[in-house]
Design goal:
Elements: H1 29-41, E1 54-58, E2 61-64, E3 69-72, H2 75-78, H3 87-99, H4 111-123, E4 130-135, H5 138-153, E5 157-161, H6 170-175, E6 193-196, H7 201-204, H8 208-222, E7 228-233, H9 249-260, E8 263-267, E9 291-294, E10 305-310, H10 311-314, H11 330-345, H12 348-369, E11 373-379, E12 382-387, H13 401-413, E13 416-417, E14 419-421, E15 427-430, H14 438-454
Parallel strand pairs: 3-13, 5-6, 5-7, 7-8, 8-9
Antiparallel strand pairs: 1-2, 2-3, 4-10, 9-10, 11-12, 12-15, 14-15
Helix pairs in contact: 3-11, 4-11, 8-9, 12-14, 13-14
This protein binds pyridoxal-5'-phosphate (PLP).
């Protein structure tokens, strides 16, 4: 018995050293070759933020085909929240691959689907009977949420907020705020979608109560509550730039919805699954949504999404009215069960709070040095900075997308992957895996410091 047995539970072991390392130009020669092949067969509509081709990913590190290692501050847009190739997820999925890969839940069901529904019932806000339908993508969850809300209410109208993002299908394109690139030229779009003002404290300066009154008034005047089936909100807007609404905004909207018989739907596709230090961001605002949509982080990187809602709303859909060939696939469902277990085993809610502290401290230091950082905001491991033109941080707050793009490019050259966001493309968002260490964050922040310094701002 010479083998050493790893008895540590709390300390994860990684198959890739958790450090950044740049050994070629970015992109390197092998990535460039792959990119040439890709351009010949993949339409340009599918773009890539950074065309380095990834061969391996583990923890918070991406390794490209040329051997470069990147600190991943995007986690595939908040998908690999438990860490890339997290061992419990890999084991659960691999085990499931041996047992059952597909039957179709609407033909012959299996336990994993039921277990995910139980876990979502347990961990979404609200102590009442719930039902969950599992689908394949976030947009599909939004589509189903709206579909069910319409059936339940017998109404057609769908209300959304400014700066919202809900997907790339036909209905969800109509629900997005930003036209380019998501919907430009792709019409005609679904009707009966109404966009109301949101709460964006940095720009509107309104209290939550004031912003909610404005939103409600707008919807009452332009649609009328009696014609609204649902209001779909992201508790913290994702693509919109991690916009955290003013205190009281969302509870006031929910109260109005409840009074008017409008289904209040929280799109937690980006903000959910432990990312903000709570299972769902709704908890930070005291919300108990009628319906919660989850996707992105739910299955450690496998495609899965869910619509979880009050039993009486969800059961409005007739038998056979919900489902789809791959929805709730056994392998993805097994991975999701492992994700829920890992949130507990790895104390990931606490890890998200640790990351918030480290990121906030570091970003506030940068803000003190560089006046183009207009605002630092976010909750848990969902933190962003909004960049503005020099000298406008407290006046016109003029968007500065150019600086964002320059910083993203600078950071990539040095092995730090940062994502952008915001209607005006002037937000840098940080949504790393919860496996990212403080040391990696400090290293990434030092690269960002150099990046800002390089702008001469
Ligand atoms: C990503 C996202 C969606 C769409 O999810 P897909 O899986 O890409 O279809 C919807 N809503 C929010 C808030 C998202 O972040």
């Amino acid at each position: 018995m010479t083998d050493t047995i790893d008895t540590s539970i709390a300390t994860p072991s990684y198959s890739v050293t958790q450090e950044r390392r740049i050994v070629t130009a970015i992109p390197g020669p092998k990535s460039e070759e792959l990119h040439r092949r890709r351009l010949a067969v993949v339409p340009r509509g599918v773009s890539s933020a950074l065309p380095v081709y990834i061969a391996k990913a583990n923890g918070a590190i991406l390794v490209d085909v040329d051997g470069n290692q990147f600190i991943d501050l995007g986690a595939g847009i908040g998908v690999t929240t438990v860490g890339h190739t997290e061992k419990a997820v890999v084991d659960a999925a691999a085990g499931q691959l041996q047992d059952v890969i597909h039957t179709l839940f609407t033909i012959t069901p299996y336990e994993e689907y039921v277990r995910v529904a139980e876990l979502l019932a347990e961990h979404t806000p609200g102590d009442f009977e719930k039902r969950t339908v599992l689908v394949n993508s976030g947009a599909e969850a939004v589509e189903n949420g709206v579909k069910i809300a319409r059936k339940h209410t017998g109404r057609n109208g769908v209300a959304v907020l400014e700066h919202a993002y809900h997907g790339r299908t036909n209905l969800t394109m109509a629900m997005n705020f930003k036209a380019a690139p998501y919907s430009t030229g792709f019409g005609p779009f679904a009707g009966d979608v109404y966009r109301a003002p949101n709460s964006y404290p940095y720009h509107d300066g309104l209290s939550g109560t004031e912003a909610a009154a404005r939103t409600i008034n707008y919807l009452e005047k332009t649609v009328g509550a009696a014609d609204l089936a649902c209001l779909v909100v992201e508790p913290i807007q994702g693509e919109g730039g991690f916009v955290v609404p003013a205190e009281g905004f969302l509870p006031a909207l929910q109260e109005w919805c409840t009074a008017q018989g409008i289904v209040f739907i929280a799109d937690e596709i980006q903000s959910g699954m432990a990312r903000t230090g709570a299972y769902f961001a709704s908890e930070h605002f005291g919300l108990v949504p009628d319906m919660v949509l989850s996707a992105k982080g739910i299955a450690g990187g496998l495609p899965l999404a869910g619509v979880t809602g009050r039993a009486e709303i969800m059961d409005a859909a007739q038998p056979g009215g919900l489902g789809g060939t791959f929805g709730g696939n056994p392998v993805a469902a097994a991975a999701a069960i492992a994700v829920f277990e890992q949130i507990e085993a790895g104390s990931l809610l606490a890890e998200a709070k640790r990351i918030e502290q480290t990121l906030y401290a570091g970003l506030l230091e940068l803000q003190a040095k560089y006046d183009i950082i207009g605002e630092v905001r976010g909750i848990g491991a969902m933190v962003a900075i909004e960049l503005v033109e020099p000298g406008t941080a407290s006046t016109t707050k003029t968007p500065n997308a150019e600086a964002v793009n320059a910083i993203v490019a600078f950071a990539a050259q040095r092995g730090v992957l940062v994502l952008t966001a915001g209607t005006y493309g002037n937000v840098l968002r940080f949504l790393p895996s919860l496996a990212v260490s403080d040391a990696l964050l400090a290293d990434a922040l030092s690269v960002l410091d150099e990046a800002f310094a390089s702008l001469g701002a």
